[in-house]
Design a protein that fits this description.
Shape: elongated
Largest sheet: 6 strands, antiparallel, barrel
Strand order of the largest sheet: 4-5-8-7-6-9
Structural class: alpha+beta
Oligomer: single chain
């Protein structure tokens, strides 16, 4: 009888919870269950990339392990067999609940502010990728004035990475050649093509980028590869006739249409040296070559939300090499909110691999 009364009292108390109290109780319980901490003893072949895949199901979570072990791991590329690492539990994923009076719409959520980027110490020196060094005048000064850190076509033609679960932003597709009697699945520069849009076409004179998905990187995402640029000549209904103005890869019928990335670099701008810049990890590559040559594009896990800009430069440092520890350099040629595409501009061997961390060495200002 006592047990029954106790149980009845417990039911009455729970039934008397308000929605907010119930959410608070569920939140506390979820946090207790998901914030458990484990440990991992490093064995040969381990790296932060693989550990994140093992414990969280995604290599994108490697920073969670690194941040929990920074007192032991100074370089994310170097962990040694026998080390015991802390593996934090997954953070509780609890949706925010707001109780509103009946018939009243909830207030819009404010966007989270972008992370601030600290101002590092800089040395005003030219990038190592410049073909000619600046001088005090004459031809040297002219070479500096005519320098683009990254050209417009390099930005427009750079592949980018869509994280797993993300869909590309598509405004339309390339449907066919616009010229009667001409039949080919591969239109080229200065040919007119018919575009089909999901809504009304953009204004005449607007340029758009053609692209398609060319590769999937398991547990990472899909590679979107630009094929060209078109400029709208005429528009009617949900279609338009456009001229192909640039070609980066073989253009095909049914290539997707997207907006062009912003480009604001000016003549003479170049990145400046940064002391102890932040790290980014290579999540994969655009190409399929086993050994990545100069010019190959790597995908980094840091983007514009982290302060990364087109023209920034990263390097892979190996302290064991003595007075010349840099094994490879990358230059950012395209950025999205959560990632960047960076081309290899210098290597000493097959040093760039998936899961390797690189450090920001020069920053655009």
């Amino acid at each position: 009888m006592v047990r029954s009364a106790t149980a009845l009292a417990a039911v009455m108390i729970l039934a008397g919870f308000t929605p907010v109290q119930q959410v608070a109780a569920q939140t506390e319980q979820a946090a207790t269950q998901t914030q458990q901490v484990a440990t991992h003893t490093v064995v040969p072949g381990d790296c932060l990339w693989n550990l994140a895949k093992t414990y969280y199901g995604s290599p994108w979570e490697w920073r969670r392990i690194w941040n929990a072990n920074k007192s032991q791991i100074s370089d994310p590329n170097l962990i040694f067999p026998g080390w015991i690492l802390t593996i934090p539990g997954k953070e509780a994923e609890v949706q925010k609940v707001t109780v509103q009076p009946a018939g009243e719409a909830p207030p819009p959520e404010k966007p989270a502010p972008l992370p601030s980027v600290s101002e590092p110490s800089m040395a005003h020196q030219p990038t190592v990728f410049r073909e000619k060094q600046p001088g005090t005048g004459g031809a040297g000064a002219s070479a500096v004035a005519a320098h683009f850190a990254v050209t417009r076509d390099e930005v427009y033609g750079a592949p980018w990475l869509l994280r797993t679960g993300r869909e590309p932003r598509i405004v339309g597709t390339l449907e066919a050649l616009a010229e009667a009697g001409r039949h080919t699945p591969y239109p080229g520069v200065l040919e007119k093509v018919l575009l089909r849009f999901q809504g009304a076409p953009p204004a005449v004179g607007t340029s758009l980028r053609l692209f398609r998905i060319t590769k999937t990187i398991p547990q990472v995402g899909d590679v979107a590869t630009p094929t060209g640029v078109v400029r709208i000549l005429t528009a009617e209904g949900d279609s338009a006739v456009a001229l192909i103005t640039q070609q980066y890869q073989r253009i095909q019928i049914k290539d997707m249409l997207g907006t062009l990335p912003s480009y604001s670099l000016k003549l003479g701008e170049y990145p400046q040296a940064v002391s102890r810049g932040p790290e980014a990890m290579i999540m994969g590559f655009a190409g399929t070559a086993v050994v990545k040559p100069v010019g190959s594009v790597a995908f980094l896990d840091q983007g514009s939300d982290d302060g990364v800009s087109v023209g920034d430069e990263y390097e892979l440092v190996n302290p064991s090499l003595g007075s010349h520890p840099v094994e490879g350099r990358l230059q950012v040629v395209s950025v999205t909110a959560d990632g960047a595409s960076a081309r290899i501009v210098q290597i000493t061997g097959a040093v760039f691999r998936q899961g390797v961390a690189v450090r920001l060495s020069r920053k655009m200002r």
